[in-house]
Design a protein that fits this description.
This is C-type lectin domain-containing protein. Pfam families: Lectin_C. InterPro entries: C-type_lectin-like (IPR001304), C-type_lectin-like/link_sf (IPR016186), C-type_lectin_CS (IPR018378), CTDL_fold (IPR016187). With about 350 residues, the chain is of the alpha+beta class. It has seven helices and 20 strands. It has three domains: about 70 residues, no CATH class; about 140 residues, no CATH class; about 110 residues, Mannose-Binding Protein A, Chain A (Roll). The strands form five sheets. Strands 14, 15, 16, 17, 18, 19 and 20 form a seven-stranded mixed β-sheet that branches. Strands 1, 2, 3 and 4 form a four-stranded mixed β-sheet that branches. Strand 18 and strand 19 form a beta hairpin.
Length: about 350
């Protein structure tokens, strides 16, 4: 294992729990691993590696750090438990708020670490990489701002922080949401979500503080999938067009299979399917007379079950769940589980 080394920033002065006093940050221009940097802080009578509790703290650090990278006190245990939190660090998530979840939520069908508002005003979890409309909150004016544009959760959080205070957070702020205005954000679909400031992760601060402030500059890290092939099985029976809409609304697209390795990866996951076939992104164009992938990939690799299958209009490609996992030509209106690509 390669241990990355870089400079670090630590806390000194008032304890971070004493919010009425200003935290003091100091940069150490020495390359150390995270563990070495924390040990240095402890051995030299400082509080700990830096805790960042707000955008004000973040701006102070960025101003002094410039383009350099430095360790802070945020870390995650290998098997850490993901805890629900609000984006605004002064708003706490507690057990009493669990009644706000929609029936069966949070279900974590895939890695779903971000909270949304449904048309029935209940909460549901969703992939942070999904692009949805969202709601901001302006603490200065106590205004709720409805963003009629679709962003992933991290980008939505940045949008709200740059223009207002943050994503809307906590039941008290949620009470100010206008149901009529939220309906304007929902597309006409049973699979509608609006991002709010609810998220979960297994990260914690080394000094033991419970601040929920995060400022990731990359895609939400808990949702990094296997780097070889990004697919997810959706165990709901839908027509091919319903499956296509679902994948494009929640993830990226219906799955494309361009080689044997991808075929094996997908067929391994079919063992968890609840239908005899699973839809893929294969589609037949009747007017032009050929098969194509909805991702615009050319169909070079093929795994058809039988050359005797007839090409007809309104047909799409499905993989058999059992047997040799061959591809079959099925009518669009049949309903099967399906695979989405997530990137």
């Amino acid at each position: 294992m390669i241990v990355q080394k870089q400079i670090f920033v630590f806390l000194s002065g008032p304890c971070c729990f004493m919010t009425n006093q200003l935290l003091q940050y100091h940069f150490i221009d020495e390359d150390k691993s995270w563990d070495e940097a924390r040990r240095y802080c402890k051995d030299n009578n400082h509080t700990d590696l830096a805790t960042v509790s707000s955008m004000a703290d973040m701006n102070r650090l960025r101003q002094d750090l410039g383009t350099r990278k430095a360790w802070i006190g945020l870390y995650r245990e290998a098997n850490g438990i993901r805890m629900w939190q609000w984006s605004q660090p002064d708003v706490q998530f507690n057990a009493s708020q669990k009644k706000e979840w929609d029936t069966g939520e949070p279900n974590d069908v895939i890695t779903e670490n971000c909270g949304t508002l449904r048309p029935n005003n209940k909460w549901a979890d969703l992939s942070c990489k999904s692009k949805q409309p969202f709601i901001c909150y302006n603490e200065t004016t106590s205004d709720v701002i409805y963003a009629n544009k679709s962003l992933n959760w991290t980008d939505a959080q940045s949008f709200c922080r740059n223009r207002h205070t943050d994503l809307i957070s906590g039941p008290e702020q949620m009470k100010k949401v206008d149901e009529g205005k939220t309906k304007e954000l929902f597309p006409q679909s049973p699979y509608d979500f609006i991002f709010i400031g609810l998220f979960r992760d297994a990260w914690q601060w080394s000094d033991g503080s419970s601040f929920s402030f995060r400022f990731w500059n990359l895609q939400y890290d808990d949702e990094i999938k296997d780097s070889s092939y990004h697919v997810i099985l959706i165990k709901e029976n839908m027509t091919w067009e319903e499956a296509l809409y679902y994948c494009r609304h929640h993830h990226h697209d219906l799955v494309t299979i361009t080689n044997m390795d991808e075929q094996r990866w997908v067929q391994e996951k079919t063992k968890n399917a609840s239908s005899p076939f699973v839809w893929t992104g294969l589609r037949y164009t009747c007017s032009l007379g050929f098969w194509f992938w909805v991702s615009d990939e050319v169909v070079h690799y093929k795994n058809w079950a039988s050359p005797g299958q007839v090409n007809e209009c309104d047909m799409s490609g499905a993989m058999e769940t059992g047997g040799e996992h061959k591809w079959f030509k099925k009518h669009d209106e049949e309903k099967f589980n399906f695979f989405c690509s997530t990137s």
